[in-house]
Structures are given as C-alpha cells and as structure tokens.
Design brief:
Length: 196
C-alpha cells in the first residue's frame, strides 16, 4: 500500500490530518494540469479545490484499493472540461492573468519585451507560444486530456488509461491523433500569421 492509499484509508477512518497530507501531495500536480488545460490560474485553483471537496465528500464511497491519483485526475479533467465548455459560451479575458502558472506575480503586462532584447525575436517567440496555446485549445477534450497528462504530468500510458478509461494502446492512439491534430493546426495558424 503506497502513501496515498494509506492516507485515503486513514481519511475514511476519520483522520482529517490524512486529508491535509493528500492535499499537500496532490495540489501542485493537479494545479499544473488544470492550468495547462485552462490557462487561468484562478480557475485552475478553484477547480483543484473543487476536486478536493469532492474527494472529501465521496471518501466513504471510494474502494480501499482505488487508484487515488487516477480518481483525482479524472475528476479534475471532468471539471476542467465542464468549465471550458461554460467559458466558450461566456467568453472573458482577464488583463491581470498570470503569465506563467508557477509565477503568479507576473502578469500579462510583463510580456512586453525589455529594451535590450531583440524585438523581432521576442515577437517570433510570442507568436509561436500563442500558436501552440491556440492549437492545444482547439484540441477535442478526449485528445487534450491524455496529451496534457503525458506532456506536463509525465504519466505513463497505463496511468493515463486509468484516468480516461481506456487501454494503454488506446492512450497511444489518442496521443498520436493529438500530435497529428496539433501539427495540422500549427501549420494552419502559422500560415495565417505569415500571410498577415
């Protein structure tokens, strides 16, 4: 039994300190997954909190041999997907949004290049990053989740399969399709940028 499973068992027996240990262990990886999906630190924090609330509410329903990390990532992926669909119907842009997930003190205003950098190079980098973000944003949910879990969380195919409910071979297929989609989308976006 690993530490997370031991903490889940302790939580089910009423040990609230085990819940604090679970939060300390999983908050950062869950936040980075949610931020990678949503590109908004505030929303990512809110959804991670909601995932932990659901864990606490459903702690007695989880089987002792539950794969806790899979349950947490699957719950968070579903929350992100629902939130993303809601955002598409109610678009908004935050001008105070953090530029990077691990440095929330830097806002988008900090993206303006300093006078000593080459503006053309900085613009190319910003365009490439924006194109990649747009391409990832355009991915369908069933391709986005395995890609983010593999690229950012470094989960293996079996772990991703436990989160999304498919075989490791199915994960491999989804990752291949996601990469093909990104390649096509990036080519399209960059050709549009080149025309303008």
């Amino acid at each position: 039994m690993n530490a997370a499973d031991a903490d889940l068992s302790a939580l089910q027996r009423g040990d609230d300190a085990a819940f604090s240990r679970l939060i300390a262990r999983w908050k950062k990886p869950l936040f980075f997954f949610a931020w990678s999906y949503l590109h908004n630190a505030t929303d990512a924090n809110d959804l991670v909190t909601e995932a932990f609330v659901r864990l606490y509410q459903q702690r007695q329903r989880l089987a002792p041999d539950s794969h806790l990390s899979g349950w947490l990532f699957k719950t968070l992926a579903n929350l992100c997907h629902s939130h993303h669909r809601w955002q598409r119907r109610h678009p908004a842009v935050s001008l105070d949004a953090p530029r990077y997930p691990d440095r929330p003190e830097q806002t988008l205003a900090d993206a303006v290049p300093a006078g000593d950098t080459d503006p053309a190079h900085a613009l190319e980098q910003q365009e490439a990053q924006a194109a990649l973000a747009a391409a990832i944003e355009a991915l369908p949910h069933d391709l986005k989740v395995p890609l983010l879990l593999h690229q950012y969380e470094r989960l293996d195919y079996a772990e991703i399969g436990a989160v999304i409910g498919c075989t490791p071979r199915g994960v491999e297929t989804r990752l291949y399709r996601a990469r093909q989609f990104l390649r096509t989308e990036l080519t399209r976006i960059m050709s549009e940028v080149g025309r303008t």
